[in-house]
Amino acid sequence: MTAAVFFSMREYVVSPIFVHTVPWEQYERRRRELGIGSSSYEAESTISGPQFSSMRSHKVLDTSVSGAVTGGLLRGLRSGPRAGVSGAITVGVATTLLQMGYNEFGVQRLKYLSHHRSSEDGPPPIPFSQSRSSLVSTEEPLMEEPTSWKAKALSLLGVRKVSEEEYLQRLKLQRDHHLKRIKELEQKLEEEQKLEEERKAKD
């Protein structure tokens, strides 16, 4: 239930509000992708593309606010207004860290793909500003090329290329692990709240 409320809050309430109101670069870019951006920014972003800094901050603010609102709302309804504050802080911090970790994982994967392509194929390195979609589109041709000495060496060390299906599966497992962790934190908060209420009742 917590996950459903969180994702609904972020995707249907918080993110749309931020996309239409916040003047930051990532929201300008998202407005352009939705067809509501200015032509001047569209021309500029077409040249530069998304930077790693914007990729690392992608939806961090949305996630932080949504997590805080969700945690505060659910904890407040269950245990009262005072518990809502601690719930907002805990869930907000947890979801923010998870989103930052997810973004960093994507950045490091793009760096690896870019470096791997430039070292094997010999053309100029792919700019760091190139979008994720264009980098992913180059992965299938790479899989069909003859195995280089570097790829063989990496395979001996147990390192191998990860297909898109495997990558998505790992992301799903990571998401499930994070959701499980959030549930454990909520249970811990509930137990602490019960202990506090019992102490007050004894006093």
Describe this structure in words.
The chain has 203 residues and is an all-alpha fold. Helix content is 81%, strand content 0%. The chain is built from ten helices and no strands. It has helices at residues 2-21, 25-33, 39-48, 52-56, 60-79, 81-121, 132-137, 139-144, 149-156, 164-202. Helix 1 packs across helix 2 and helix 6 runs antiparallel to helix 10.
Number of helices: 10
The average pLDDT is 75
Proportion of beta-strand residues: under 5%
Structural class: mainly alpha
Radius of gyration (Å): 22 Å
Listing every helix as H and every strand as E from the N terminus to the C terminus, the arrangement reads: HHHHHHHHHH
Approximate shape: flat
Topology record:
Elements: H1 2-21, H2 25-33, H3 39-48, H4 52-56, H5 60-79, H6 81-121, H7 132-137, H8 139-144, H9 149-156, H10 164-202
Descriptors for this entry?
mainly alpha, flat, 203 residues
At a glance:
With 203 residues, the protein is mostly helical.
